[in-house]
Amino acid sequence: MTEIFQIFFQLFIFFLFTFFPINKYTFSKFQFVYINSNYNAFLINIILILNIFLLFSFFKFDLNYIFIGLLFVNLSLLFFNFINITKDIFSKKNVHLKFAFIFICFCFFFKTAANLELGWDALSYWLSKTNNFYNNKSVFEMPHLASPQLGAYMWAFFWKNSFMQKEYLGRLFLDYLYIISIFVVADSLKKQSDFKKLIFIFCLVLFTFDYNNTLSGYQDYLLFILLVFCSKSLLELNLKSNSSQNLIIYSLLIMTTILLPWVKNEGIFYSIFIMIVYFFIDYQLLIKKFLFLFIVAANILIRVFFVKVILVTDNIFQFSFTPEVLFINIFNIKELIFRLSYISFYLIRSMFQYPLILINFISIIFSFRYFKYLNNNKIFYIFFFFNLFFIYGTYIVHTSPLVWQLQTSMSRLLLQTCGFYIFLVVDLINKKII
Amino acid sequence: MNTNIFNKIILIIKSNYNYIILFLFFASVTHLFKNFNILLVRTYDERLLRTYGYCGGISYGYIKKIKNNYLLHDKKVYIVNFDTYPSSTDLFIDLKIDADKNNVIFLNLRDTNSDKLKDINFNFSKYVLLNREDSCYYYKKIK
């Protein structure tokens, strides 16, 4: 029973850390972001807290002190706005969605708490990194230096700052972020009843559900969540021409894109894709585009410099390839056809593991027909093109056994980015095309 | 008074029956009730033991037993798993890898001529077997 109470308390802590400091009560300037619901406020605060985690992960600060500092700020803000917030929470507005949010949180939290099995990579890499931060060691002492630290730091932070200090209590935050991202997507549905939004949320959760134990310590869902946020910000920027609103969303996009390379190495490529996509967005000043390019490039260079020079590792990725292998894989037609056909086969197979990938793929094909009605399409097409190129490119140059690699990583690789395309489905629903 | 509350509950159920069906469906898909029951009846340690096994696979139970009975002061141990599994050491936050190999745990050791045993250059004559259960062994270096 104590564990159940701890899980309830953990949800309260997550709420406190993600609803503050920025919401409609504390920063009314951001009012335009909160139209209809508070999920966009959660989005802003999540990006903020993840950036704080990233910053602190480079220094040897005690996790308890950071927690106390953040808790003090958030509790003070809660105290000063207590009446308005409780009124809002217990108001009848969006009551079904509020209840659904808590309900889905508990469904996932209890699932994680009851099934403690960690995935293979989670046990091999991520848990040892998390243990490092849990024991108040610095990033320079962590094992498996080539893989980044943000997810492990986040895991250790909420693990250490829980009453019972059980490992899974830290992982609950990833479940929480995943649910928030689903609600952020559902929030973009226009002129839909709460019931229809709920059906959409449940479908989305079931289509991306943790069938392969992917929430068990893997970092792929964190990339999924961040790409949902990136996609949301890009779409907002594509629609809004108001300069002050534009600037806030632009800053949010930058802050989210900065996080990507520090979650997993694939994030380096995704941040480049986001940067390229941003270049094709309307209503944006050229100087902003070049500033974005500069920040993304600087962030990647810092990551490479950090791994290669400060941590002194041989490879920034967990694999390496020699020019000879590259030549054999690309210019040997027989090998190339073999690889391309296997990659395509596993690509299709992965679509059935996470049905959302299949839905995204169908939506992209379907949207070609309604191209002129959907002004956001180019964002998804550009990202899709580069993503496909990245997937094929990675497996073509990879030196480890191809089939084993495809079996173990393809579905997770596709899951990471499928969050980006969900808004295409939302757009099709909003335009009443499907 | 009671009838009034009962009527109110009935009214809420009637007006929200579609939501209730949706929630129940979702609860059954995510095994909410089963997981809730597991949390009520099984302790954290029991759940870990059921997940990672006693002696076999990652062998959580055996390592925990050795840690509690033999590694009371020096929480350092060198664990070798002879089956292909990720490291078991990280499951224990206070356990450290014993680089000097003073305390050695072998997991899933079924063949004493195993190549892995040769790879780690383990000399049985320098160690004393303190505990053995099935294919799990705990050796301590003779000082």
Structure notes:
- The complex is a heterodimer of chains A (434) and B (143).
- In chain A, 72% of the residues lie in helices and 0% in strands.
- With 434 residues, chain A is an all-alpha fold.
- In chain A, helix 10 packs parallel to helix 12 (266-279) and helix 15 (333-353) packs across helix 17 (377-397).
- The longest helix of chain A is centred in the last third of the chain and has 29 residues, at 402-430.
- With 143 residues, chain B is of the alpha/beta class.
- Helices cover 43% and strands 18% of the residues of chain B.
- Chain B is built from six helices and five strands.
- Chain B has a five-stranded mixed β-sheet, with helices on one face.
- Chain B is elongated and about 80 Å long.
- Chains A and B meet through helix 1, helix 5, helix 6 and helix 9 of A and helix 2, helix 3 and helix 4 of B.
Outline of this structure?
With about 425 residues, chain A is mostly helical. Helices cover about 70% and strands about 0% of the residues of chain A. Chain B has 6 helices and 5 strands.
List keywords for this structure.
heterodimer, A: 434 residues, mainly alpha, globular, B: 143 residues, alpha/beta, 5 strands, elongated
